[in-house]
Prior knowledge:
The chain is α/β, with parallel strands linked by helices. 32% of the residues lie in helices and 26% in strands. The protein has a 7-stranded mixed β-sheet with strand order 1-2-7-8-9-10-11. Helix 5 (185-196) packs parallel to helix 7 (231-242). It binds flavin mononucleotide (FMN) and fe (ii) ion (2 copies). Flavin mononucleotide is lined by residues 257-263, 309-313, 341-347, 373.
Amino acid sequence: xxxxxxxxxxxxxxxxxxxxxxxxxxxxxxxxxxxxxxxxxxxxxxxxxxxxxxxxxxxxxxxxxxxxxxxxxxxxxxxxxxxxxxxxxxxxxxxxxxxxxxxxxxxxxxxxxxxxxxxxxxxxxxxxxxxxxxxxxxxxxxxxxxxxxxxxxxxxxxxxxxxxxxxxxxxxxxxxxxxxxxxxxxxxxxxxxxxxxxxxxxxxxxxxxxxxxxxxxxxxxxxxxxxxxxxxxxxxxxxxxxxxxxxxxxxxxxxxxxxxxxxxxxxxxxxxxxxxxxxxxxxxxxxxxxxxxxxxxxxxxxxxxxxxxxxxxxxxxxxxxxxxxxxxxxxxxxxxxxxxxxxxxxxxxxxxxxxxxxxxxxxxxxxxxxxxxxxxxxxxxxxxxxxxxxxx
Length: 392
Ligand SMILES: Cc1cc2nc3c(=O)[nH]c(=O)nc-3n(C[C@H](O)[C@H](O)[C@H](O)COP(=O)(O)O)c2cc1C
Ligand SMILES: [Fe+2]
Ligand SMILES: [Fe+2]
């Protein structure tokens, strides 16, 4: 049993054989559902775990309780990956008081329609829950990334229980228990952030401002490693990400090709950009590569070249789906250059322009380049101009 700070025990579980997190994100290194137990004059359980790991989580809880009974069960976030094991706790400890925002308590009734909830305590921003030497102070974090979310700070130890914020894909046994021992926290931390919280930049900004006045020494999220060192590094990344700033100078080249012609052009463009001195060029084959990673890269870089073929008088579906993902995740403040391919009536650029035009502060630079079926030497000047436009 691990203590993350004095009197605060880690009771979370790893989910290694999870096929898809949220039924959509591939998690090659699994997932962790973090949960904590504060053992003081009063005993508080902080969040539970996904139903598929419920039994294992309950075992961890029992072990950490060391014969004590929980007084409180704090729900920071009602999404079932954290609250699906509330019911067995209530069955075993009917005297426990469930603590959460009024909306979380309402959701609890929705998610457990047949289970009596018993004692509840609704908390709001600024409320405290004294446990003895530890005291939890609550802050509302609406839409980070659900409306009922609260985060809390233990004023005794400076631990921030940050709910889904500062989370990361990957089971702790595969990555690391402590973020500073994780070889590349930002890689999967970023894929997680943009796909799960991307749309809610303003709300994340509001939360960061709110917490600015608190003395925080450790961040304990609901997923991924515990952050105990260099907190400024993670806070800075969250500040950049949530303000839609550019994290890495470079260009992301994303392409969707049926028979390889558009892919060939996109690879040529990537080579050209490198030759022109672009500091970093990342590529994604939207038909095969992980969509969530493509979304991540679109936000990581300030510039993107999107190449796609025409399809049924519209846009080839993987590119269409990708743009739809970008739109719902709040893609903004970026420059994009377009390449379309078509054999009889090219239509991809029109749709890409329409979709990008509906996004905030997305500038289409240069002239969209039209390729007819396959790359030809005659396309060279237009592609050179497109590369110069995106780099300028
Ligand atoms: C189902 C289907 C629908 C297509 N619809 C269009 C279209 O509406 N207009 C067009 O110019 N080309 C259309 N095409 C042709 C491709 O866009 C074109 O052949 C292009 O060069 C394919 O590039 P690729 O080699 O990257 O797959 C369509 C192709 C397929 C398979
Ligand atoms: Fe969540
Ligand atoms: Fe979660």
